[in-house]
Amino acid sequence: MRAQTCTAVLDGAIAHLVDAEAETEAIVTDGGLPFTVLIGLPDSSVRETRDRVRAAVVNSGELWPADKVIVGLRPESLHKPGGSLDLAIAVAVMAADGTVPARPAGQPVLFFAELGLDGSLRPVPGALPAALAAVAGGISTVVVAAQSAAEASHAPGVRVIPACCLADVAAWLRGGPGPPPQAPGGLPGGGPGNTAEPSGEPSKGDVVVIGEVALAVAGVGWTPVRGGLNEVRTSEYGTRPLPARSQPPEAADQATTPGPDQGAP
Length: 265
Hints:
Blueprint: E1 2-11, E2 14-25, E3 36-39, H1 44-47, H2 49-59, E4 68-74, H3 86-96, E5 109-112, E6 114-115, E7 121-122, H4 127-136, E8 141-145, H5 149-152, E9 159-163, H6 166-173, H7 204-218, E10 231-233, E11 239-241, H8 249-256
Parallel strand pairs: 3-4, 5-8, 8-9
Antiparallel strand pairs: 1-2, 2-4, 6-7, 10-11
Helix pairs in contact: 2-3
């Protein structure tokens, strides 16, 4: 049986969608033992996922397939580091074994979390870029570790399902109550648990997220604002200096050339 789930990997500040496809095959050789194969250019750290995911599934009270398990990660040309693939691989394997559906109610879901050996969900960096990539790819539901829910909910139009363990995710996939969904976010005026109408003014959390994302994406981009050519002013948070190379050439000349009231050394 075959099943497919979706996750994401980070490339700098950008997240790329990755399909995790699992298939189980009966072992026909005498004395054969069940084993798992990962294909699709996985990073060396991802190869450790085989044992980590199996332990998480078993310790969550689920059954690991007693067959050969093949997990393919696509696109194959994309480098796939980190533990963000764990949850998607676990769900794909369980779905291929017929214990859970990969798509609740037929809707696509992005799974983005690392698994502990005890089945707990651990946050991984990049929940917001992953949620943005999901929305761009037509996926409106994202399952993340509970600690990542606030960050992921800032993506506009996304429904965030925060979970503490794999057992909660399995219960939710089977149609049970599972973890409560995080309210859809969006910037500005959105945010975790914010169901009120936007006030028109960015909130404290919005300022932080907008500033961090803008600086990460813009790199050393220069923006003239009050308070100096080499500052970024963000509400009550004060100022944050930009690198000196972010100044335009004319600003650098003004900083080094003595003015009319400033005598030569």
